[in-house]
UniProtKB/TrEMBL annotation:
One MF annotation (Gene Ontology) recorded for this entry: hydrolase activity
Protein's recorded name: Serine hydrolase domain-containing protein
Alphabetical list of PANTHER family matching this protein: BETA-LACTAMASE-RELATED, BETA-LACTAMASE-RELATED DOMAIN-CONTAINING PROTEIN
UniProt keyword Hydrolase present: yes
Residues making up the signal peptide according to the UniProt record: 1-26
InterPro entries: Beta-lactam-related, Beta-lactam/transpept-like, Diverse_Enzym_Activities
Beta-lactamase-related domain residues: 53-348
EC number per UniProt: 3.-.-.-
Short name of any one Pfam family annotated for the protein: Beta-lactamase
Catalytic EC class: hydrolase
Length: 360
């Protein structure tokens, strides 16, 4: 019975999907379907702990959809910081609509109502939209450092998250740390949720409408995403830095949109140039991992074969991935929020099960 339901769901997704224009004839969906059956069995045994769903599409067609909690297909998934990538999409759409001048646009002028700023410094006036998209502004903001003034846990204690970000001091570079000019791509990466919240505020200011309304009209409705549950900050701004709840199949649709160069059903939803720019390295996040415009750019290796990926990552091991060379998209949702190595757990699922099943 369950297999029949899954087959029907797969056919429905295939009917809705739009093949990539000019692509080569589709390869077999999987090299070894038994690998995915083994993965599902391992997940049901709890070997990967609190993984809640795994979806895989190839050539725009859903080939695997499985859920491991009571929520099933209709449950909105909290993929935490994967929201950031959605905010990046909205920035690209706003630039295309000429609501924002471009990635070089300075940030501070969008917020005359938040001034004067604490920790005044002329360099704040030079902080651009691109600096926030690449997690490389000069604001002293580092979510990985509990001592950082801009750590997101400190932000949640303040009513106005945007003002919190604007008031941060300029970061320093001690002698043992490379300055931006000495780093790959000329940028110093520092993971900063507050900066992405500010990007959401910029889109809202530029569009002259709530961020959630802009997202619904320009992104979610064109993708036939029926519902998006945003977290709302104390000042009423939709939280662009995390906590947006979407169904797993909707997350897969966002990944497929980027694999399809921003198009769906003949309509350009995200500009193709923005897709290319977003998935081109702009900063080095850590060894062997780069960062674009709020996309993680990292290789996954299976069977000695590396596969480049574009990823939306969220706390707890949540990952929404595009594998361009495999013409595949993958969603893994998880509630491993208390697991120290949650992302490593998801990565093992991908390299030991998903990629071997896809092959070449």
């Amino acid at each position: 019975m369950l297999k029949n339901v899954m087959r029907a769901v797969g056919l429905m997704f295939a009917a809705m999907a739009t093949p990539v224009a000019g692509q080569a004839p589709a390869a077999p969906a999987t090299r070894d379907p038994a690998t995915l059956e083994g993965m599902d069995a391992a997940l049901r045994r709890g070997e990967f702990k609190r993984i809640t769903s795994v979806l895989i599409a190839r050539d725009g067609r859903l080939i695997h959809e499985a859920y491991f909690d009571e929520g099933g297909r209709e449950k909105p998934r909290d993929t935490r910081s994967a929201t950031k990538t959605v905010t990046g999409m909205l920035v690209g759409i706003a630039i295309e609509k000429k609501l924002i001048a471009g990635v070089a646009a300075p940030v501070v002028p969008f917020f005359p109502d938040r001034q004067p700023l604490d920790n005044p410094d002329p360099r704040k006036a030079q902080i651009s939209v691109e600096d926030l998209l690449t997690m490389s502004s000069l604001l002293e903001c580092n979510d990985s450092n509990s001592f950082s003034r801009g750590n997101e846990e400190r932000m949640y204690l303040i009513e106005d998250y945007v003002k919190f970000a604007l008031d941060l001091p300029i970061r320093g570079f001690p002698p043992f740390e490379e300055k931006p000019a000495d780093r790959p791509y000329g940028r110093a990466f520092s993971y900063c949720t507050a900066g992405v919240v500010m990007l959401g505020g910029i889109v809202e200011k530029a569009a002259k409408q709530p961020l959630a309304d802009f997202a619904r009209a320009s992104l979610f409705e064109p993708l036939a995403i029926p519902k998006a549950d945003w977290q709302i900050t104390p000042t009423g701004l939709a939280m662009g830095g995390g906590g947006l709840r979407l169904r797993s199949v909707d997350l897969l649709g966002l990944a497929q949109l980027y694999l399809d160069k921003g198009r769906r059903n003949g309509r350009q939803i995200v500009p193709e140039a923005w897709v290319t720019a977003s998935t081109t390295p702009k900063a080095n996040a850590r060894e062997n991992v780069d960062y674009g415009y709020l996309w993680w750019l990292a290789p996954f290796t299976a069977g000695g074969q590396p596969h480049r990926s574009w990823g939306m990552y969220g706390m707890g091991g949540n990952k929404i991935l595009v594998f361009p060379d495999l013409r595949a998209t993958v969603v893994v949702t998880s509630e491993n929020f208390r697991e120290r190595d949650a992302h490593a757990l998801t990565d093992r699922l991908i390299t030991e099960h998903i990629l071997p099943a896809l092959g070449r």
